[in-house]
Amino acid sequence: MAEVSQAETKAELDFGAIRKVLVVDDSRLQRRILVASLKKWGFEVLEADSGEAAIEICAAMSPDLVLSDWVMPGMSGLEFCQAFRALENDEYSYFILLTSKSEKQEVARGLDAGADDFLIKPLEADELRARISAGARILDMQRELSDKNRMIETALEELKVVHDAIDKDLIQARKIQESLVPELTRDFGRSRISMLLKPCGHIGGDLVGMFSPGVNRVGFYSIDVSGHGITSAMMTARLGGYLSSKHFDQNVAMEKRFDKFYALLPPDQVAEMLNSRLMADAGVEEYFTMVYAIIDLRNGHLKMVQAGHPHPLLLRQDGGTEYLGQGGLPIGLLPDVTFQRTDTYMKPGDKLLLYSDGFTECRMADGSLLEEEGLCRMVTDCAIDLSGPEFLDDMFWRLTQAMDPDQGMDDDVSAVFFEYSGP
């Protein structure tokens, strides 16, 4: 190999990630020539006279660069390369085979064995230096990438810890939210109210509820808070307190009279009170849609307010269907809003369905939305021989079967099903 010029000094050469070099050759003379050049370039050099000896060295420490002769007695350079790549090393090492073989087949065998480059004997110092520099650039990029991957792994571990903590909190939050709906079905005399609440995530922005301050008087509602996630769920918790089924003194839909009993306030008045409370809270950007209804079980007189919520579906005992309500504005959007009340009479055997837009705006497998027409067909099919919770469960099952499987549920789904059976 040509002599190294005086200019090629350690101070002037920068081989990046390559610091430690292992020279493997059964020829002592060849090793001396290589080692002399490498040391002048500033490398720490290790020597081995066989593949077996080289493997022992590599098992104890991993060199940055290996220069190995191909043809050696015992373990060949090719076999040594394969054994070297089989070792478990934290850092990648660059491997150059020194050979007199230049045929493409032989080069391919070397690459398959794990070699990164080849040098044809006799070696030239300039070419060796250039090949080492090329290897150093590759190692620099590889190790920089490894460092970044380690940083990413560390960050991912930290994120996993945070995610697990958030997930634990959300599971607890879901339990708290479920406690807002302590019972999903309840009989009121001969009539019955059943409810469905299916958030699309851990927690949701839908809320359903019912309460009765006394015999023959029942109130029930379906609410959908804008947005999704934690802020919406916090709003449902607040609304659950405003419309409490257990603490009548906190329920804004009730009024205590003569210090003896509670009366249900008109639904439109309740909507206006809730709107005033939300508008009075600075910083609250959430609003919600709602259908709230009260019924006198003695005569089936239903009073209802619709505030931006989907139109309730009335199923008549004779098989007829009709959508109720005037639409109206959501609650919490504008101050000083008045809401219109809808009155109707239910007959024994009639049924009323309140539902969130998670039903009607669900994306079907053919790309269309379910909408009110599709909901009416689904309800009619379910209503043939089912009632109560079984009816709602069947509705939800039919929805999941018909929805786009790639999109799934992207909104909360909830419903209230009131079955009127007379006084």
From TrEMBL:
Q: Using the record's annotations, give every residue carrying the modification 4-aspartylphosphate.
A: 69
**Entries under SMART domains matching the protein:** PP2C_SIG (SM00331), REC (SM00448)
Which keywords describe this protein according to UniProt?
Hydrolase, Phosphoprotein
Return the PROSITE patterns for the record: RESPONSE_REGULATORY (PS50110)
Q: Does the keyword Phosphoprotein feature in the UniProt annotation?
A: yes
Q: What molecular functions are annotated in GO for this chain?
A: phosphatase activity
The protein's matches in Pfam families, at most eight in alphabetical order, are given as: Response_reg, SpoIIE
Q: Which InterPro entries match?
A: Bact_Sigma-Reg, CheY-like_superfamily, PPM-type-like_dom_sf, PPM-type_phosphatase-like_dom, Sig_transdc_resp-reg_receiver
Which biological process annotations from GO are given for this protein? phosphorelay signal transduction system
Q: Which residues form the signal peptide?
A: none
Locate the Response regulatory domain: which residues?
A: 20-136
What name has this protein been given in UniProt? Answer: Sigma-B regulation protein RsbU (Phosphoserine phosphatase)
State the organism named in the record.
Ruegeria faecimaris
